[in-house]
Amino acid sequence: MTLPLPSGDFQAYLFDCDGTIADSMPLHYLAWKQALDEWKCVFPEDLFYAWGGRPVADIIVTLNEQQGLAMPIEAVTRRREDHYLRLLPQLTAVPDVLRHIHDAHQRLPIAVVSGSTRESVTASLGTLDLLEKFDVLVCAEDYAKAKPDPEAFLLAAQLLHVEPSACLVFEDTDLGIRAATAAGMASVRVPQPRRA
């Protein structure tokens, strides 16, 4: 299957990382499970996918509220990240998105716009040998308001010196698509490889 693009004279491509460039969601779910098991917290897989794009801290707070737990946000976040980094050798790219990255590289400015930490994003892209393909990385530490707020996408457009209306966003979550729309950008929905 080839990922169809909307028509338009796009001057930049903005890619989400997890679930869009990297087929990392199954690994992220495994990392979540391993981290949460230490606190006897349950996180069903369907809920994990339904919450795609939510900040890690929000997820931990909500799970604490739902299950009457008091998991420390920073400790759980760090453990989850550590587990994910250990799973990286299993990481693969999403083939259709990879083709668009290679096609755009050195033809258009391209950026990653992710809700994950810079450490996680650079580790994933490095594992996939894609880090050098991107002109700009906008990661969780770089903005205040998470998707569906458009802040991260607007920041990427500004850093690339491209008008938001001339950007095309590649995203796999509802929150990401809503953020792109709020930024005045066209978007492409990337189906989850294992859930298409």
Number of domains: 2
Average pLDDT taken over every residue: 95
Structural class of the secondary structure composition? Answer: alpha/beta
**Class of the largest domain in CATH?**
Alpha Beta
Radius of gyration, taken over Cα atoms and rounded to an integer in Å:
16 Å
Sheet with the most strands: spatial strand order: 3-2-1-4-5
Question: CATH H-level name of the largest domain... which superfamily?
Answer: HAD superfamily/HAD-like
Question: How large is the count of helical segments?
Answer: 8
**Could you say what the CATH topology of the largest domain is called?**
Rossmann fold
Overall form: globular
In CATH, the architecture of the largest domain is 3-Layer(aba) Sandwich
Along the chain, the helix and strand elements come as EHHHHHEHEHEHE
Largest sheet: 5 strands, parallel
In total, the number of strands is 5
Strand content range? 5-15%
Task: Report the helical percentage.
Answer: 40-55%
Give start-end ranges of low-pLDDT stretches.
Answer: none
Report on the structure:
- It is globular, with a radius of gyration of 16 Å.
- Helix 8 (174-182) links the parallel strand 4 (167-171) and strand 5.
- It has two domains: 12-23 and 91-189, Rossmann fold, CATH 3.40.50; 25-89, DNA polymerase, domain 1 (Orthogonal Bundle), CATH 1.10.150.
- It is built from eight helices and five strands.
- Helix content is 43%, strand content 10%.
- A five-stranded parallel sheet has the order 3-2-1-4-5, sandwiched between helices.
- It starts with 11 loop residues before the first strand and ends in a 7-residue tail after the last strand.
- It has 196 residues and is α/β, with parallel strands linked by helices.
